[in-house]
Design brief:
Blueprint: H1 3-6, E1 11-14, H2 19-29, E2 36-41, H3 54-67, E3 72-76, H4 78-94, H5 101-117, E4 124-126, E5 132-136, E6 146-150, H6 168-173, E7 174-175, H7 183-192, H8 214-222, E8 227-231, E9 237-241, E10 262-268, E11 273-278, E12 286-297, E13 306-310, E14 318-325, E15 328-338, E16 345-349, E17 355-362
Parallel strand pairs: 1-2, 1-4, 2-3, 4-7, 8-11
Antiparallel strand pairs: 5-6, 6-17, 8-9, 10-11, 12-15, 12-17, 13-14, 13-16, 14-15, 16-17
Length: 364
């Protein structure tokens, strides 16, 4: 971070109570800045049904803000989360797709609903994401430069894939104070500075849902709907499932079908049928060419022919070539990719997996 770029700017920090956002506050404080901190409150709809860690989160956020003399305000985005992110998720899984709630949470809540409620009063909104930004000069005037979302040096923790649906105006206001660090370095800073969150485990599961299990999250809205499990190659019925929305293409673990191993290779949401292939690594679990539609460019720049990509949150960036189509792109991966599923976001980077161009939804 360039302190000169931040001088005189009004900065809001989204402080969750975790180690990453806590160190983000420290990084600003050590530059002599005193940002306002905000804890976004997203609770379950019926508190008694869920095991939620939000109280502990708020306690830790309060302690960190106080340590650095920052004001902390709680912003309630409960209704927006359940109306927007949950609706998106349930509409997709009901249609047999594989959505990513965390991607939409960043666009709709962290940089969306929060901005509408409080963020509009600030020049920059800082988060604890493992991501970076850089400017590309396109002229002599500052307004002619382009801001890019770029990857973190930590390939395991890099979170640009979760940010690949944000709008250009959201990127313009985004600030990632820890994006240049490795996760181990962030832990070391937290330990050295005696931050209360230093030894907290990283959150698992869906953004804001705490300890809520994803399967239970879906069951809460869609319930169970038993249907047939069919072997793709033979048409033989091999068992029964609880509802196609509980399963994703490429899934092998936790299926509970006898005579395995089985891979989910296809879903028919209208007939509520799952199609599976037998074996530990069947060819039907892979695709090398697939379409993506409604490509969202973060800053208006379109990707070149040679790219790297991700279809899920993994450390690997997969090389590919893309071909423009009427409503998106056709992806030609250099090698077959496991578990390509409709509804997943295909996140597109340059060939050096440095700049993130954006993402489009897979429509296989």
């Amino acid at each position: 971070m360039d302190v000169n770029e931040l001088e005189g700017k009004r900065i809001a920090v989204l402080l969750s109570g975790g180690v990453d956002s806590s160190v983000a506050v420290y990084e600003l404080a050590r530059l002599g800045l005193h940002p306002d901190c905000f804890y976004i409150k997203i609770g379950p709809e019926e508190e008694e049904e869920w095991d939620c860690s939000s109280e502990e989160d708020l306690e830790m956020a309060t302690a960190v803000a106080a340590k650095y003399g920052c004001r902390l305000e709680v912003v309630d985005c409960h209704r927006e989360y359940w109306d927007q992110v949950t609706k998106y998720t349930m509409d997709k899984v009901r249609a047999g797709l594989t959505p990513n709630p965390d991607v939409m949470c960043n666009r709709l809540i962290k940089f969306g609903a929060f901005h509408e409620k409080r963020g509009h009063d600030y020049d920059l909104i800082a988060t604890g994401h493992y991501a970076q930004t850089e400017f590309e000069e396109r002229g002599t005037r500052s307004e002619e430069r382009i801001k890019w979302l770029t990857t973190s040096p930590d390939p395991v923790k890099d979170q640009t894939d979760f940010l690949a649906q944000i709008y250009d105006w959201q990127l313009e206001k985004a600030l990632f104070p820890i994006g240049h660090y490795m996760k181990d370095e962030v832990r070391q800073i937290a330990e050295r500075e005696h931050l209360v969150s230093a030894r907290r485990k990283d959150s698992q599961g869906i953004c804001f849902l705490g300890k809520i299990d994803y399967t239970e999250y879906i069951r809460r809205y869609l319930g169970d709907q038993p249907g047939d499990v069919i072997e793709l190659e033979t048409g033989r019925r091999i068992g029964e499932h609880r509802g196609h929305w509980f399963y994703t293409i490429g899934q092998r673990k936790g299926l509970g079908f006898g005579g395995g191993p089985w891979f989910i290779v296809k879903k028919d949401p209208v007939a509520n049928v799952l199609y599976v292939s037998h074996g530990y690594d069947p060819a039907t679990a892979y695709k090398q060419t697939f379409p993506i539609h409604a490509f969202h460019s973060i800053n208006g720049q379109l990707p070149p022919e040679r790219i790297t990509l991700k279809i899920r949150h993994t450390p690997e960036f997969l090389p590919a070539r893309i071909e423009p189509t009427a409503d998106g792109y056709l992806v030609h991966a250099d090698a077959p990719i496991h578990g390509v599923a409709p509804g997943q976001f295909c996140v597109v980077y340059d060939a050096d997996h440095h700049r993130c161009y954006g993402s489009g939804e897979i429509t296989v």
